Amino acid sequence: MATAQSETPRSTRDLYPVAILEDRYGGGYSGGKWIAVACADEGFGLEPLSRVDWMLQNGPHGNDLDAAGFWSNPPTWVAVGSTPDGALEALAQRMNVRD
Predict the structure, then answer these.
(1) DSSP 54
(2) CB count in 10 Å sphere of residue 29
(3) Residue 57 and residue 89: Cα distance in Å, rounded?
(4) Which residues does residue 50 pair with via DSSP β-bridges, in sequence order?
(5) Residue 3: CB partners within 8 Å, gap ≥ 6?
(6) pLDDT tens track for 73-82
(7) Helix%, strand%, coil% for the chain, nearest 5
(8) What's the whole-model pTM score?
(9) What is the pLDDT of residues 3-23, one digit of tens each?
(10) Is residue 90 within 8 Å of residue 1, measured between CB atoms?
(11) SS3 70
(12) Cβ burial, residue 3 (10 Å; 0-12/13-18/19+)
């Protein structure tokens, strides 16, 4: 998974609410068993769904092609880890959290 970080340092509170999901494919495409989603209740593009709702129905939880496509260039508000805490730590790093 890419390790691009946001340019502006953020506070931990800027990530919340965070959703932690178990990866449907056990890390086969993502590289981690757990997925952390920052600002999980925000809308996703033109879809009438929140980020977490979209992810549970599409992308990483969709079919094999959807999951492979999603993880080939994941958004910066998503990170993975081998544990839920690891995914949250990876998300904080990815989002350039400084506190």
Answers:
(1) H
(2) 21
(3) 25
(4) 43
(5) 93, 94
(6) 999 999 999 9
(7) 35, 15, 50
(8) 0.86
(9) 444 446 578 888 999 999 999
(10) no
(11) helix
(12) exposed
